[in-house]
C-alpha cells in the first residue's frame, strides 16, 4: 500500500501552483494519473521516487516511512529503488543495451536476471547495440527492462508510449500489462490516451492544478459504462466534415478510422483531437465471417 | 639552440593540465548542479582569468606569495614552499590562470546532459560518485578532451603571469614564451624564430588532431 | 435480454430492448431514472394518425423547423418528450408534403433506443 499525503509549491513558467495531494494506492494495482500538462502528474511521480522533495507531508510504502516532513525523514532515491521509466527513456548513451541493464544490477545480485529480461523483452539480438542505433519502440523496451533489473515493487511510467506510433503503442501496452502481472508490480502510469488508460489501469486519478479532482475505476471514469449500448469504443476525432444537413465525423479507434454520422448539435461540441465515445446498440451492427 | 625552455614549457603544461583535470571536475560538477546563491560568484571567479590582463593576476599572486606577506610567509615558514620565482609557483599560477579553460567546457558538457540520466542512475540505487564516474563523465568525453587541450595550449602560450611570478630563470622558470621575448630583445631573431616555429607547429598539430578526432562535436564546447 | 418501458414526463411510454437483464445491470429496476437516447437518423415520420406498423414508439409532434438539403433534410419537432431532431431524406419530405407547423407522428423502433443510467 502506497500512501501519499503531500504539499509542494511548484514554480513554473506559468506561475506558482500548489500541489496538494492525497493518494492511496493498493499493492498490485495499476493506477493512472490523468490530466492536462502542468497539472502536477510528473511532479507527483518525482516526489514518490525521491527525485523531488515535497514541502510538507508524508509518504509511506507498505508501512515504511519514505518521507515525513515532521520527523525529518526523507529517503534518497537510492534507498527507495522504484523502477522509473522516463519519458525520454534516459538510456545511457555510452553503454550497450546489455550494459545498460547490467548497470542496474544491485550489489551481489544474481546476474541471471539480465538474460531473463533480455529474453522477455526480445532484446537478445540487440544486446550489443548502443541506444542511439535503436528505434523508439526498442528504446522503450530497453528502458522498461532496465527498470525491472533491480526487481522493484513499484514501477513508475511517465508517458512511456507518447512518442511512439500507434502500432508500437498497442504492442507495448500489451507488454506493459504482461510485465505488471508477471512481476507483481504496483504500477503508476502517466498517460493522456484514454484507450490506453482504460486498457491498462484499474484505477484513474485525474489531477488538475495540483489537486485530485476525480477518481474512479478506469471504465467508469470515462463514462464508458454510462449507457446500455454494448457496441462502444473510445477514440480520437480526426476530421469533422459537413455534408448536406448532417456531419460526418472520422474517429480513430485503435488502428482503424471509422465514420460516424452526427447531427449539428453534437458536431458543434466537437473539435479535432477530442477524445470521444462511439456507441451503438448491440442490435445494429452486422457481423460477417472473414 | 637551447632546448631547455621548450622542455620546461611542456613540462609545465602537462603538470598544469593534469592538476586542472582533477580540480576542475568537482568544480564543474558542482556548478552544473547547484542552485546555490553563490554560484554566480564562483562562476565569475573561475572566469576572471579570461578577461583580466595576465599581469594583474601575476601581480596579485606575486604579492600574495611573497614571503614579505602573511600568506607567503606562512607557506615559507610552515611548509618550506617558496612560490615566487620557482617552478612550483609557475604551476600554481598556471592552474589558476587556465582554470576557466578546463572548467567551462566540462561544465557546459555536464549541463547539456539530460538530468534524467543521473536520476535514472539514482533510482537504480547508484551513488552520486558512481553516477558521475560511470554515467556522466563518459558521456561528456568530447568536453573533457576540449578542456584538456584548451588548458594545455593556453598554458603553453602564457607569458604575462609567468613573467610576473616566475621571472626569467633558466631551467627553472624560463619557458619558451619568455625565451622568445628574450631573444627578440637581444635582436637574436633566428633563435626567436626557432622557438616560435616549434611552438606553433606543436600546438597546431595538437589542435588539428583533436579537431579531427572530435569532428564537429568539439566546437560546441569551446567557450 | 429485456424489454424496458420508460415513462417520459408521466405520460408517454417509450419501449426499448436491451441485452442486459436486471441480473446483469443494476440500473434495471422499476422506478429508476434513466436517460433515453436515440439517433436523429433513426427517427421516422408519419403524417397518418393511426398506422399499422411494427414500430413500437410513436409520439405526436409539431414540425417547428425544416431545413431541406440536396439529399437529406433536417426537421426539428416539438413533442411531449421535448425537442426532437429528425433527419430523413428530402425525397420523403416532398412525398409526405411536410411543411412547418404541420402535425405529425415521430416513430422509433425499440431496438434503437439506448438507455443511459
TrEMBL record, chain A:
One of its GO terms (molecular function) is ATP binding. Residues 1-234 form the ABC transporter domain. It comes from the Bacteria. PROSITE patterns: ABC_TRANSPORTER_1, ABC_TRANSPORTER_2. The keyword Cell membrane does not apply. Keywords: ATP-binding, Nucleotide-binding, Transport. Pfam families: ABC_tran (PF00005). SUPFAM superfamilies: P-loop containing nucleoside triphosphate hydrolases. This is ATP-binding cassette domain-containing protein.
TrEMBL record, chain B:
InterPro entries: MetI-like, MetI-like_sf, ModB_ABC. It is found in: Cell membrane. The keyword Secreted does not apply. The keyword Glycoprotein does not apply. Its main location: membrane. Keywords: Cell membrane, Membrane, Molybdenum, Transmembrane, Transmembrane helix, Transport. Signal peptide: none annotated. It is a multi-pass membrane protein. Pfam families: BPD_transp_1. Residues 6-210 form the ABC transmembrane type-1 domain. The chain crosses the membrane at residues 12-32, 44-63, 83-103, 143-165, 195-213. Part of the binding-protein-dependent transport system for molybdenum; probably responsible for the translocation of the substrate across the membrane. Belongs to the binding-protein-dependent transport system permease family. CysTW subfamily. This is Molybdenum transport system permease. It comes from Arenibacter arenosicollis. The gene is modB.
